[in-house]
Amino acid sequence: MLFENQRAFAQSLDQQDPLHAFRNEFLFPQQNGTPFIYLCGNSLGLQPKMARSYVDQQLNNWENMAVEGWFEGDTPWMYYHKELKWLMGNIVGASAAEVCPMNTLTVNLHLLMVSFYRPSAGRFKIIMEAGAFPSDQYAIESQVRFHGYDPKEAIIEVAPGAGENTLRTADILAAIADNGDQIALVLFGGINYFTGQWFDMPAITQAGHAAGAVVGFDLAHAAGNVPLKLHDWDIDFACWCSYKYQNAGPGGISGIFVHEKHFSDTSLHRFAGWWGYNEQQRFKMEKGFIPEAGADGWQVSCTQVIPMALYYASLKIFEKAGFIEPLRKKSEQLTAYLCYIIDEVNKQLGFEQFKIITPATAEDRGAQVSIVAKHNAKEIFNALMAHHVLGDWREPNLIRLSPVPLYNSFEDVFLVGERLMAISKTIITHRN
Predict the structure, then answer these.
(1) Residues within the annotated binding site?
(2) Which positions does UniProt annotate for pyridoxal 5'-phosphate binding (predicted)?
(3) Domain extents for the chain?
(4) CATH fit for domain 76-321, picks 3.40.190.10, 3.40.640.10, 3.10.50.30, 3.40.50.300
(5) pLDDT (tens digit, 9 = 90+) per residue, 47-105?
(6) Dihedral, CA atoms, 307, 312, 314, 315, nearest 10 degrees?
(7) Would you list which residues are annotated within the binding site for pyridoxal 5'-phosphate?
(8) Domain 7-47+322-430 class?
(9) Residue 412: what pLDDT?
(10) pLDDT for the residue numbered 215
């Protein structure tokens, strides 16, 4: 599409957008009575308007039934997680049996590594991306130490080449091949939180399996953002949070995926809890752990009803929108338009003030655009906030902007460019 840096053009795209009305399903933060242009869904998604009613339903059940709410009422808590499983499967490309809502992201990463990181004297190394989100780095390092290995020897980080910001798929595959007989686990993010790069998950999985390793992904920035086919891609396990692109609230419940090929593997270790015990026998309270079938067998603690209600509210919006494919079509256009608008700002300034480090090709990115501001970066970010544009800041000079297709518009993107231009001319001219 040939874009135009005109408000009327952006409005015409919104008029043609079949998903445009979904922004009315969400609550936008305000400053002095003026709503923000919200481009921070990569960090925390907006609150669905229906979230309160879904939570109120469970509060009413608690009020009216108390402990009987576990088995009585319209949504018995004992089985409430099953209400979400089919919806979650459609988000990540899995069967309902292969997914389960539970815990929080890093807790789930640890629990899954208990099962799927099984080092031996000859095969103990983990391949991961350099610059992964710190929580992943800490979790992997601690797991390696737990098994008695030195992280400096056991963890192989694949980094971008000199002068580059993102990873080449060929370099990732080469690192796997070069260390193949020593690799126990390949564990990547689906999308890098800093650059917004979407990794070639099928290629990484295929290479990891060819090397004899288990392959898993942290999908914090991918789930609800890009099309995923975890089952078809033969990925062994994955986990994600629900509070970014899936709008389930701060600290929202996490989800896990375990490929069905592992369901019958009785040799897998796991940290067990009562809620992961076979559902039909759970209340016999007997010794000897017998896991529930599927991903539910990795549960440890009981259903987190209120966080699940928040997640459920958002998942029902995804269902109404047609899940990921329609959203992805709009997202590709929104993100391309944002990149175009940033380039237009640079042209008007007469130099490259804003460098986009997110990959230029649609198949290599999701909704996030990461922008390095070369001059007065923090001042520009603060000024955007003052002008009702809420993005995300990362040291030392990175601004992350994420137009989310469920609630952002093309006019939002145009207005961001207009305000960014005015702010840059004022600040950079004044200081330089």
Answers:
(1) 105-106, 133-136, 218, 221, 243, 274
(2) 105-106, 133-136, 218, 221, 243, 274
(3) 7-47+322-430, 76-321
(4) 3.40.640.10
(5) 999 999 999 999 999 999 999 999 999 999 999 999 999 999 999 999 999 999 999 99
(6) 140
(7) 105-106, 133-136, 218, 221, 243, 274
(8) alpha beta
(9) 98
(10) 98
